[in-house]
Amino acid sequence: MPETAKRGEPESVPCAGTPVAVFYPDADSLRFDKPNDHERNALAICASCPLAARNACLERALTRPIADQWGVIGGTTAAQRKTLIRGRQVASLIGVAA
Q1: How high is the pLDDT of residue 4?
Q2: Phi/psi class of residue 74: alpha, beta or left (left: φ > 0; alpha: ψ in -120 to 50)?
Q3: Nearest-angstrom CA–CA distance, 29 and 40
Q4: Residue 3 clears pLDDT 60, i.e. is over it
Q5: What mean pLDDT is reported for the chain?
């Protein structure tokens, strides 16, 4: 039985019970210039999630270091989250709220 999404989401969110592999694909299938088919499928599941829950997932993911960003979380790919994290870091350095 595959491991399923249980990252603290309530049972009612669309990813509950979805195999984790849907959100964390094989590294060989990843492209960083645009989402691939696998990521688009995961992004579609995230898009069907209530906005508050999706934002909560994203905020949890953004607390992790850039090196630990992997897969689709909170409606974003790892590349998108890395960009968001870098933007927050720059904003913090120049004293602007991100």
Answers
A1: 46
A2: left
A3: 12
A4: no
A5: 83
